[in-house]
Amino acid sequence: MRYAIDIPNFGDFADTRLTAQIARDAEAAGWDAVWVWDHVQRDAGVPYADPWILLTAIALATERIRMGPMVTPLPRRRPWLVAREAVTLDILSRGRFTLGVGNGSPIREYTAFGEEWDLRIRAAKLDEGLAIIDGLCTGRPFSFAGEHYTLNDVEFLPVPLQRPRMPIWLASTWPIRAPIRRAARFDGTWPLRRNAEGESEDMAPDDIRGVCAMIAEERSAAGLPAGLGEGPEARPYDVLVAGSTPADDPFRAAAIAAEFAEAGGTWWTERINTSRGDLGEMRRRIDAGPPRF
Fold it and tell me: Which of 70, 120, 257, 273 has its CA 20 to 30 A from that of 23?
């Protein structure tokens, strides 16, 4: 299992220099990645920063850790611009970039700006956007004709440093099969459970077992290998688990993460945001290091 921190792009973390310092601290404390939220108006009355500029600052401030948006709402973005930003960050970070995408929430981030919010339309735009990013990353002339997007003989250079492209992870909603089927075609997933109000809830180890089983079924049905890569480079399909562990009890922290690793999770992501504690508490959790077992 590998370990990441997950930080919002608003509130205290809208300070780009502070976020870069937090990323340096996370790298020094032994974390493996920093993920950044992508919101434009989730909460009123708080400052926001552009997540891609935050990721640029993180890439320049660190040497080892991975980074990426978790997740960027692809249906409210132009997929060719996301492809350009993602490839640029992959090269800037020397191959440390992971692209996390999804349909996006809350709905207000669509409706407040006059964007289409219907889930079926967003899902269709997500599928088309993924096909476009995949095609552009080849570096070869690429055309696409879909319901929502059209590209005519476009060539995107340079290509990503990671080949065949940077990893793409999809947000998914457990136990709904359609988003997991979509995620299974790519490199990883961040599964969430939604309550009746549409708010995300923590996954349990048994939920992760179910996700892993469904991913395996879908990859087999699509004729895809169970893992990613070949030979000594082969690795498991990535399943991200998000949660909270204590800073002052490393044995308890490790026990929590170990349950999810045993269930099939490959990444533990520690929630770092001020709804959990103030900035000082969150920095102490980062400095305490990942919940390794």
Answer: 257
